Amino acid sequence: MAVLCKPAIAVPEYIITQDDTLELARRLHKDHSQLRLVLRLIEHTGVLKRHLIQPIDKVLKHPGLDARSAVYEQESKARVPAVVRQALDQAELEARQIDLIVYVSCTGFMMPSLTAWLINTLGFRSETRQIPIAQLGCAAGGAAINRAHDFCRAYPDANVLIVACEFCSLCYQPTDLGVGSLLSNGLFGDAIAAAVVRGRGGTGVRLERNGSYLIPHTEDWISYAVRSTGFHFLLDKRVPGTMEPLAPALRAVADQQRWNAGELDFYLVHAGGPRILDDLSRFLEVPPEAFRFSRATLTEYGNIASAVVLDALGRMFEEESPREGHRGLLAGFGPGITAEMALGTWTAAA
């Protein structure tokens, strides 16, 4: 069975605190008619700090899509390799033992994907398969785990590398003044995460089953407007309430495994905001503490898009709380509205 091993996480060196964000909002949007609402929403995100690949003065400028694309390529090539090497070391594998790379990112675009550069640069075999995923947003972390699981079910001896590279600060748009856009300016952060799914052996989450669910007719609730200035993030005010229709989908996947979604040992879910976690606690009938790993990611890094699920997993590894046979749920939520869900059992290498 495929095992999701300990992930490697890296956040960039530039930090912005919640107090910094609130002060910027007051200074830059002092005449905004809904400034008080925006400030209150930012305060309620629970995000105490975020990490950025550039100083905030550079983030606030928009040099154009071509310049931002160059920064995305430069920074990803500078920062991803160390995270990949660490993930391989933690899985006790070498690059030549990887059969597939799943690379997810919704905050920059390259063609060929960064996977081609990684293969050429870090010693992967030329036969290594590539799956770049660019349009699932925050759900892509869960999707990457699920596609890796599928591949290892088809090829039981295979190993898959997952890489999530999200530079959300490159999507800042100074002319977007809607409440949803201003809220996102205080919510999203930058991060890179990588993890290996081993077809044989390994310590971590043994993947048992996965599934997807799309809430009908919600495709315009989370989206990008792609314009000459780049990606303009659109967030509908109904998004925070999506856990009510998604909780039954989580229960249904668990039911297929004959598990009770409300009685699992660990939960690693996308922390889009505090209400997402609060509602899941209520609808799945589990204590709020069950989502402590996701909540810690939100507090310390903000919403780091597809990397959230892997960071939450890394925090569980660090806590050393799971025991052999403990059962859990992993899930990413994003545009569509889409949920990518996985069930797994904790296992230690013999």
From TrEMBL:
Natural source organism: Streptomyces lydicus
Similarity comment: Belongs to the thiolase-like superfamily. Chalcone/stilbene synthases family.
Stretches assigned to the Chalcone/stilbene synthase C-terminal domain: 213-341
A GO MF label: acyltransferase activity, transferring groups other than amino-acyl groups
GO BP terms in the entry: polyketide biosynthetic process
Subunit structure: Homodimer.
Keyword Acyltransferase attributed: yes
Positions of the catalytic residues: C138 (acyl-thioester intermediate)
Entry superkingdom: Bacteria
InterPro entries, per the entry: Chalcone/stilbene_synt_C, Chalcone/stilbene_synt_N, Polyketide_synthase_type-III, Thiolase-like
Pfam families for the chain: Chal_sti_synt_C, Chal_sti_synt_N
Domain annotation Chalcone/stilbene synthase N-terminal: ranges: 9-197
Keywords recorded for this protein, A-Z: Acyltransferase, Transferase
Protein name: Polyketide synthase
